[in-house]
Amino acid sequence: MGRFLLRFFILLIVLIFSFTLYLSYFGIETDKFDVFIKEKSKQVNQNVKLEFNKTKIHLNPTELNLVVKLKEPRVIIRSNTINLSKLNLFLSIKSIFSSSFLLKKAEVAFVKNHIKDLTKITSIFVPKIINKQINKIFAEGEIEGEFIIPFDSNGNIENDYGFSGKIVDARINITKEFFIKDLTTEINHRKVETANLFNIAIKKGSFLDFDLTDSIFKLRSENNEINVKSLLKKRGEFNFSKIKKISSLLNFNINNIKDFNGKIDLKTNIDFKLNKKYRIENLVYSMEGDIPYSEIYFSENKIIKKYLPDYNHAVILKDSKIKLNKMKTTNIIELNGFMKTNNEFDSFNLKQIYDYNKNRFNVLGKANLTNSQVNISKLNYIKDDGKKSEIDFNLNFVPNKYLNIIKLTFLADETKINITKLKLNKNFEIDDFKKLEIKTFKNGSKNNDFLVEKSDKVNISGKIYDAEPLLKSLFKKDDKKTFGNKFSSKIKINFEKTITGTNDDVNNFGMIATIKNGSYEKLSLKGNFTENEIVEMSIYQIDKEKKTLQVISDRARPFIKNFDFIKGFEGGKLEYESIVSKETSNSNLMITDFKVSKVPALAQLLTLASLQGIADTLSGEGIRFESFEMKSNSKGNVMNIEDALAIGPAVSILLEGYVDKGRTVSLRGTLVPATKLNAIIASIPLVGDILVGKKTGEGVVGVSFKMKGPPKDIKTTVNPIKTLTPRFIVRAVEKMKKKKKEETK
Q1: pLDDT tens digits for 515-529?
Q2: What residue spans define the domains of the chain?
């Protein structure tokens, strides 16, 4: 009996084990539960309808569940049919023996459905407005994957449902302008509490023709908002059209760029939120990678062109690296590599920090300028292309408000320019500074070596100063002042030697001055050409609106040299006085005892007037003048010559007109050989005889002329006249009387 029971028990165990094994691996095919499953599925979700041919029941011994596998399953979701490759229902074993139908979990798999089928499934999980957007986003491609849907004891879908699958050759429309094409990606989804989480790994795809392989996206959808975190890998070529689209997406201002093309290999992290209206918020991104080659063409920039004459508004980069971080309040860009603005590449590194709250840029950098020509006109300094040099700078600015040069150092051989804490206003006028160290060379010789420091006052001192640019600026209008309205200070200057651009160097140059609200209130300057030859300048205030500028120089050449239409000026003493107001100035200039040669306009005038003998003298030793007096007024860039008279042994000239400084000369006047003029003066008591002549046909021969054109290309016309104007005679007589009176003293 005992053996029988033992054998029966063993046989029972074997049968149970065999049945369990068979049920686990092979299952039992039946249609007994078909109607029951379909009816119960409707109870779970009214929008979901299951269709299948038969069921096969398997045992899941590890979880003590029955697995009901449906053959040829189809899901009908709100009248939309989706063909499935698998639909397994996990049932509690005890539900078989009870009236309840306890569905614990469902596994749903599908293969190569159109990507828009995704919205048929998501329609039961996400709000209608989101699902509508999903339908717009997913345009082309196929999708395959598997859903795992858990149910609670009441038959409701639990929050921790998930999805894993693949999208193949899809097109994803982010916006009308931005889309991803040829996308193949693996997707994993899971539900955590009230949020839907999506992890997307791109195996293939392109965005704006950039290769996106190995990029990763993470999306969190909750409360009608989508938070996106991504690692975007971009490789390929770009052009200006792409750059404009990307800059609009990232809110970059590229208005000063005309064209942009090249190659990139970048990794970009982009985090942002799509609100209920699908607008981007809380955008934070970082980027890092290589720029093997790129060409950037900028709009015209006169400031850069001024200092880099060979700059053609294009910058070419190669073998460069870029790093960018955009945070809530700041945007940081770091760029380094090789750059050229002319013919050869130089190394550089650059860092820009932008503060969104203050709209302020901070730019730090270092650049090799060996293969660029550098021109600093105010120091009369030119660094030739090919000479080793570099610049190191740290500055901050707010566009159209100010520019602060915290530090700037330029080095080239022995040349050194160091600027510390220089503040410029929006017009690039100086508001304040701390220190400037200047040492430059021209043609191998030192032409600047001085130090400028500002504390309670400005102290400028040094061995040598090149004043040629300053003298040149006296005759060419600059639209910008040196100092802004905020600048006020006393100034003291001492130079051992001052270069003028001629052989008329000034020794022991000294100046004291006061600047108030950006303008000189008073000034006193003195220097020596030799022990007995001096130059003096002074400025003093007449009233609130007017001030007087006076210059006395025993050598006129340094001041006259920079008139483009006068060459070969020798000798002469200069006296100049000008009453200056805010808008205009009225000036008187006198130069005595000087000689000129190589004056193209005057040579042409003498030739046209058939005064070849005097013209030959001009091209030889030059024409001497005893005096030149000019009365003028200036407004803006235009100097109006009211009256100018030059008297000399060979020829005398009376003229008037205007000079648009550095641009146009327009003069008209009268020229008379000295022999005729002397005859007039000798006969002045008999004015009638002078003007008419004592004999028939006898009269005074002069030349009326006009001169007009750019300083280096003045056109001259002449018209011989029989008699001189009373104005010419009066001015000549006044001058000669004045000279005779001075000689009798």
Answers
A1: 988 888 899 999 999
A2: 25-112+150-158, 301-454, 618-744
